[in-house]
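Researcher: Can you fold this with protoporphyrin IX containing FE in place?
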Amino acid sequence: MITTNPFAQLNTLAPDIFTPGLMQAFIILMVLLVIGGTIFDVLHKKSAKYFFENTKKGQKNAKREVSSAERKGLMVKTLTNEVLTSSEFSNQKRRLSHLLTMYGFTIFVATTAIMIFAYPQTVDTPILALLWHLGALMLCVGGYWFWFAIRVDVAAEGKPWYKISYRADMFILSLLATCTFALLWSFTSGAIGMFFFVLFIISTVFLFGGVIWSKFAHMFFKPAAAYEKRVVQADGSNEGLPTVPDLSSSEVHEKFPDIPTYMGENPENMGAGIRREPANHY
Ligand code: HEM
């Protein structure tokens, strides 16, 4: 069961309805919905305009020029850190849950496309089918962990797990519904199997068709924002924010005599207050 191609099985069950052409057209439609939704989102929120204006502003305030070789290095770092290993998350549980969700989704989507385009009528595709189930399972583990225990509403604000905020939760809920119903469809048969299949298709349409309302497009925007953040730190413009000086330096003491008076000659770096203890004071 876990090693059989569920789409080819569907084709065997009703070859006149679930034709390879129909399944492939459905995938193409989902891709078009994501592209269309992302473009609409960018135009509607004017995020690209803001992004380029902000970049220009940063360039004006730059203290040094970042060479193209250095930019390439920053791109590689963004790819290996923020994109591939979710390094932006300082909470390690959140990071692990994001990695499971992200890689689970990628494996699930890639194997779905390969099975439908390359093997729509081959029921026996053990490795691809195994990866498809594994991807869905990884997403469920990371996603349900996030939903029940990690997301800020539950972990920091004490709200019950079943409290839903329609737009904010649309992405995670449609991800979870898609992969949960995919697994349930694969593990059942007959009328119950068909019931889960219908739910799987409905949640898939919500996931890919809801890009303009959900957080889906963050997977395209976040890498660009993470790269830009590295550039503004490298060129010294730092989004117009002041750099935190060395509090024990004599130059800083001369400029700000309050520092040695109240904090001593060698104040320790106390770091960001927000990370000192978990937010759970509800
Ligand atoms: C297959 C791709 C991806 C999936 C399935 C995915 C999934 C998710 C999920 C479920 C959340 C929680 C959203 C929520 O609060 O409801 C999230 C948040 C986040 N993701 Fe991803 N992600 C993907 C790709 C990426 C990439 C490539 C990056 C960075 C380069 C990234 C960075 C982030 C960050 C920083 C957050 C926290 C943002 C926030 O809480 O508003 N994600 N992601």
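Model: Folded with protoporphyrin IX containing FE in place. The chain is about 65% helix and 0% strand.
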